[in-house]
Write a structure and sequence with these properties.
The complex is a heterodimer.
Chain A lengths: L26 H14 L4 H4 L7 H10 L3 E4 L8 E4 L5 E4 L4 E4 L2 H6 L2 H12 L4 E2 L9 H7 L4 H17 L12 E4 L2 H16 L1 H14 L7 E4 L5 H7 L1 H6 L9 E5 L2 H4 L22 H6 L3 E2 L15 H4 L1 H18 L5 E4 L2 H9 L1 H6 L8 E3 H8 L17 H7 L4 H16 L27
Parallel strand pairs in A: 1-7, 4-5, 4-6, 8-9, 8-10, 10-11
Antiparallel strand pairs in A: 2-3
Helix pairs in contact in A: 5-18, 7-8, 7-9
Chain B lengths: L1 H4 L19 H13 L3 H4 L8 H4 L2 H5 L4 H9 L3 H9 L10 H5 L6 H14 L3 H7 L3 H10 L27 H6 L17 H13 L2 H8 L1 H29 L1
Helix pairs in contact in B: 2-7, 2-9, 6-9, 11-15, 13-15, 14-15
The chains are: A alpha/beta, B mainly alpha.
Amino acid sequence: MTTSHDRPAGERFTGHGSEWRDANLSPGEARIATAWVEQKVDRRSMLTGKERVADVRDLMWQLEKDGEIVVHRVSEGHQPVVVKTLYGWDKKIPTQRLWHHKSCGQCGNIPGYPVSLLWLMNELGVEYLDETDQTSCTAWNYHGSGIGNLESLAAVFLRNFHQAYVAARAQGLPDGYYYPLVHCGTSFGNYKEVRGYLLHSAKLRERVRQILGKLGRLVDGKLLIPEEVVHYSEWVHVMRQRIAERRQIDCSGIRATIHPACHVYKMVPEDAIYDDAILGGNRLAVSTGLMEALGARVIDYSTWYDCCGFGFRHIISEREFTRSFAIDRKIRVAVEEARADLMIGHDTGCITTLDKNQWIGKAAGKPVELPVMADCQFAALACGAHPYKIVQLHWHASATEVLMEKLGIDWRAKKAEFEAYLEQVKGGKQENLYDPRRMITSGPGYVRIAARP
Amino acid sequence: MAHAASTRVQTRIGDPLSGAPPVPQAKLEQIFKDIQSDLRYDHELNGCLNCGICTATCPAAHYYDFSPREIVQLLWTENLEGIYDAMQEKIWACAQCYTCAARCPFGNSPGGLVMLMRETAIKHGMESAKSVLRPFSRVMLKLISTGNQLAPDMITRDHFPDWGPNVSKIDAPLKILRKAIPMATLNTTATAWEVNLRTSVELYTIWEETGVLKQLETIDENLFDVITDFMDEKREEWQDWLAEQEDGAD
């Protein structure tokens, strides 16, 4: 517990609104007051104080036992790390042999997001496959428009995950060799929700089984269900100490705010990772754990619980809502209340919304400036990745240059290097993080090559 | 229908200001029946004490005449006219963050219920749904035809003028900037990543089998025509490739 008596002069107690005034309690009084609040208010109780929450994986194992489904296991070969979720349940996070399930919004708009992740994996010697045989989860469109339905979402989910299961065949490796790692927060939330409905409804399973049968996407005539649905931020979380060991830049002067993504922890909240050692277990552990491991200071703020304003349809056609919410409820609060140097996210739509909408604030006479990026992008920067070739910060509209200066990165020099590199690219000599022949695993353009040594 | 027969609202009042005719009772009942028939309905609606936690934490409620509590109450009390009315505009305000679902002490999912209402609005070809989705057609075209919702060539100054003067802070042709991304799958401009031909063909089967194309036809016939033409071309391309393989094997 921190009190006004042991805080550095001028340092505000964080996590409260601007109306907050220091009560100047003595250390003893503060301890009594804090203990009372902790007894009465546990922020996790808003999520856990409910009935009828069951672990859907129990149902999954029973269905497999009954011969209804096949479970794609997180095996020893995936070198899993076990973490605790909201209710203290175990979740296995695979750390090796990963199949990248990309995000359309990240790849289309924030390419430095997946590139930073793959770069970190290369640094850590992680085996992976990035291939062309995958669709997006289609849930952005669904949540925005209502075009789509439970069956289509379920069929897309199981098709993509089946491909992850069989993808290694292209390299002469066995089924189940790779385990899917989902990049997008909405895909992550949607897939978990849909998995739950599939496990609960025999009718849905039968309908989807017919569709996947037509596609040749069954295993022994059965649906293939993943043991765990895993988000990339969970991989980053369990690898955070190993990432931190590779840190090249001092991050201790950085005041970071975290924007936890709604579809990562509010959809199927029982599957989100919490850790009592990270913000007392009262906040989602991912991203915060990484930033603390890298030595940055994570500052709480009063609107941490709010969404970013993305809205799925709103970002396209109700932009007044999106930008007002992003600026007034998130960015401005982080800047004025937490005096943040940056905001870290772990989802596609949030990063886009919080990053891109700052420009219009300036134009409207309400300037507010805060660098915004994904946790893995910051980790890559801290570990010495090139800010433009790898982290691809030129696609970000927010003031990432200010952050780089604070980190001691000469962004002008790096930008000049990248511009010179573009000339090389024009001549057809671009660099790749992996052998590009691996990206096609069937159909036109497929070339069989051996597994990565 | 058991639910409709027990509804409290038995008399249709129409709209005395605009003179709009009353919506037939049978139509209101069918709309409610369609919402209820989704297997998610009973999972997402468990009861409601009007506590309002959902609305207190709802981002859309800050800016619109929208309340997730109201949506839950309309469905819970089977207020057929109220449901129909909410489907004209209110349901489109929801930002789909699911904060309401995470917070509801009953385990309701107002955001999930909104999705069932949106799907039903589309199924019934409501003009309000057509109107609200018109600006979204570019996204639907991209997603249904390619499997990618967003592509680099969609992010332009014309489409996102409020995002600032530059799509990229480094001035270079989009094609070159994309080629400079060191993930080979991302060296594209018309899709977020290069999509395998077989993937697209499989996705089209899913759209057909699950009624998504039918939804699209109801809401935008022109867009439906464009997309089905595109799908036919891709399928032909796939068949040609398969034929080539067979020829090669002979």
